[in-house]
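Deliverable D2.4 — example input (structure tokens):
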């Protein structure tokens, strides 16, 4: 559900993450950014995973659910192993479970797909003879799935909102057009002004500095340890920061930079 509602990778859509270069990113970081760059791909992959789990609930669709889950989990395992994501054991165990669930059908699948031989219908093994008990078990399964999916979905919705809702027009990535002050000149600035993150990230020479800040609205000021920067914004795409940064007086003019530019060309 954290992919159906794209919340798993949403932290990598913050402005501060945009200043991290490819050379500074780990393999897992690159994979997370790849997923975060496309909500459509994330949602589709999440729907496939959820579909496999739902199909496993019903006796008539157990095999289809196991096969769908195997496809989804193979992709997850390959990506995690190839990009060095430190979460490998869980998807491997789930893949082994999908293989175990589908094992009774392997011979029939080989007959149909490779030997071109008709496969006899598999006679289901009924552990419980009473139809009402079986129906009650199915209902319990469905209610459990709905409760778990609802709880995870609600958490994912809240997380997605907290990381995507902008509290002000300051939120974004900015290019430094003029720098006046001591120390190494600034090149780029990112301001996270969202419910889940209030952070100032700036590239100063080869260094990337990250500071959690407190944002005062009236008057508009960014505050942190060693930082007091007054904010002035006369136009939507320009910003001015003036004040003290690590003991140095600075005055910085900024121009908004476009992020996540997507091509509309179709080939």
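Example output (designed residues):
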């Amino acid at each position: 559900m954290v992919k159906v509602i794209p919340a798993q990778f949403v932290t990598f859509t913050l402005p501060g993450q945009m200043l991290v270069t490819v050379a500074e990113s780990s393999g897992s970081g690159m994979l997370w950014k790849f997923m975060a760059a496309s909500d459509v791909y994330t949602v589709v992959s999440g729907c496939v995973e959820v579909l496999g789990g739902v199909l496993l609930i019903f006796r008539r669709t157990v095999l289809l659910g196991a096969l769908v889950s195997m496809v989804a989990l193979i992709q997850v395992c390959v990506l995690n192993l190839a990009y060095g994501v430190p979460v490998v054991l869980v998807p491997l165990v789930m893949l082994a479970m999908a293989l175990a669930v589908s094992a009774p059908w392997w011979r029939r699948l080989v007959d149909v797909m490779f030997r071109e031989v008709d496969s006899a219908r598999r006679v289901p093994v009924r552990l419980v003879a009473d139809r009402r008990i079986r129906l009650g078990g199915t209902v319990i399964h469905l209610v459990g799935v709905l409760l778990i999916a609802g709880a995870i979905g609600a958490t994912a919705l809240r997380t997605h909102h907290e990381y995507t809702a902008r509290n002000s027009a300051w939120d974004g990535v900015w290019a430094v057009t003029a720098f006046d002050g001591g120390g190494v000149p600034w090149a780029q600035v990112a301001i996270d002004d969202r419910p889940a993150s209030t952070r100032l990230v700036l590239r100063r020479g080869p260094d990337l500095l990250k500071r959690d800040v407190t944002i005062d609205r009236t008057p508009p000021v960014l505050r942190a340890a060693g930082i007091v920067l007054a904010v002035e914004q006369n136009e939507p795409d320009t910003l001015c920061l003036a004040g003290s940064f690590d003991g140095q007086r600075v005055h910085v003019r900024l121009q908004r930079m476009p992020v996540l530019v997507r091509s509309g060309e179709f080939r």
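The first strand starts at residue 172 and ends at 181.
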